[in-house]
Amino acid sequence: GDGRSEIAIGDLYYSTCAGSASNGRVYIINSLCHNYVVNAMANDGVSNWNVIGTATTGSGTDPYFILPAEGDFLYQDITIPSGSSTVQISAQVRSARMLANEGFPYLYAYVMNSSGRILQNLTSSTSNSLSWKELDIDSSVNARGRTLRLFLKRSAVSGYNQSNTAYFDDITVHFDCGT
Description:
The protein has 179 residues and is mainly β. Helices cover 0% and strands 45% of the residues.
């Protein structure tokens, strides 16, 4: 009911990224895709996420991840399915303050080989929106990639130490689902 474009069913998502909306109806075009993120909607607090700093979650019926301070971030390692050639990463994000110099939410990821060597860096734009907005990364995946390390981060600018808070929810990672 909050206008966001994905509906969770267990650990699978129906995605409207390739769909269209008309008269309040959403038509699903692409097939059911598995979401590889564990605890994507903060229902279990920060479990299954590596926490750096004071990152936490909001409570209530629709929890979300909160990065309240500079240097805070969450990350999760995801095994890349064998033969995957593309990845789609998305999250709903918002910021506590629009007119700050830093602290805006963004997605960052890198693809590693079996030895942990970084082969590829992926990043989204930042958002200063006060209401929920979707950020996306759509990319090819290096053929030697075995692990995707996904980060939920907030922007930082040298010389500033502002308390702008970044919020994240409904995080998805899909491999080879099409667009």
